[in-house]
């Protein structure tokens, strides 16, 4: 390694004879080489770099244009979705209102029909009670009448004799005759 370094150092001590030779000043040669390379790059690479930048610019512009179109489409779809949402919300509100109205109407119908059924049942109950009362009253009347008739027949049989019996029949026939005339 020391030999390689010594050879570079020894190159730096060569005297220049005014003709062609190596410039061993590293800073000066690097600047010259760098400026030559940059000059060549700028001269020849200017067109390539310009084309690359133009292509990149076109791609960016196309991407922006596509993004704007997509944004416009997205905004349009968003507005359509909002419109549909408002319509659906209005329909839902209408269904809700109609549902509540329908529920209230059904509730009132149920209450009315139940009330009507209860009134009919009350009427049937009252009619049944009246019928049973009349039947009981008729049965009591029949028994009272039978007992009164038996008592009257018993009294008549014990009190009436043939002569009294005939007088009563004649009196009744006379009253019937007076009514008919």
UniProtKB/TrEMBL annotation:
It is found in: Membrane; Plastid, Chloroplast thylakoid membrane. Residues 71-98 form a coiled coil. Its main location: membrane. One of its GO terms (cellular component) is chloroplast thylakoid membrane. It is a single-pass membrane protein. Pfam families: ATP-synt_B. The keyword Nucleus does not apply. The chain crosses the membrane at residues 26-49. GO terms for molecular function: proton-transporting ATP synthase activity, rotational mechanism. Signal peptide: none annotated. InterPro entries: ATP_synth_b/b'su_bac/chlpt. Keywords: ATP synthesis, CF(0), Chloroplast, Coiled coil, Hydrogen ion transport, Ion transport, Membrane, Plastid, Thylakoid, Transmembrane, Transmembrane helix, Transport. PANTHER family: ATP SYNTHASE SUBUNIT B, CHLOROPLASTIC. Belongs to the ATPase B chain family. Component of the F(0) channel, it forms part of the peripheral stalk, linking F(1) to F(0). F(1)F(0) ATP synthase produces ATP from ADP in the presence of a proton or sodium gradient. F-type ATPases consist of two structural domains, F(1) containing the extramembraneous catalytic core and F(0) containing the membrane proton channel, linked together by a central stalk and a peripheral stalk. During catalysis, ATP synthesis in the catalytic domain of F(1) is coupled via a rotary mechanism of the central stalk subunits to proton translocation. F-type ATPases have 2 components, F(1) - the catalytic core - and F(0) - the membrane proton channel. F(1) has five subunits: alpha(3), beta(3), gamma(1), delta(1), epsilon(1). F(0) has four main subunits: a(1), b(1), b'(1) and c(10-14). The alpha and beta chains form an alternating ring which encloses part of the gamma chain. F(1) is attached to F(0) by a central stalk formed by the gamma and epsilon chains, while a peripheral stalk is formed by the delta, b and b' chains. In plastids the F-type ATPase is also known as CF(1)CF(0). This is ATP synthase subunit b, chloroplastic. It comes from Pternopetalum davidii. The lineage of its organism: Eukaryota, Viridiplantae, Streptophyta, Embryophyta, Tracheophyta. The gene is atpF.
């Amino acid at each position: 390694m020391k030999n390689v370094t010594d050879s570079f150092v020894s190159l730096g001590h060569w005297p220049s004879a005014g003709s062609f030779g190596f410039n061993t000043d590293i800073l000066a040669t690097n600047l010259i080489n760098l400026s030559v390379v940059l000059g060549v790059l700028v001269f020849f690479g200017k067109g390539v770099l310009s084309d690359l930048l133009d292509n990149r610019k076109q791609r960016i512009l196309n991407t922006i244009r596509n993004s704007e179109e997509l944004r416009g489409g997205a905004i349009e779809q968003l507005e359509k979705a909002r419109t549909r949402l408002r319509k659906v919300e209005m329909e839902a509100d209408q269904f809700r209102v109609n549902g509540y109205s329908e529920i209230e109407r059904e509730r009132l119908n149920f209450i009315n029909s139940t009330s009507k059924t209860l009134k009919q049942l009350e009427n049937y109950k009252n009619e049944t009670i009246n019928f049973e009362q009349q039947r009981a009253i008729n049965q009591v009347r029949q028994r009272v009448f039978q007992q009164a008739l038996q008592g009257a027949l018993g009294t008549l049989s014990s009190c009436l004799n043939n002569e009294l019996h005939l007088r009563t029949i004649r009196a009744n026939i006379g009253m019937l005759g007076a009514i008919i005339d």
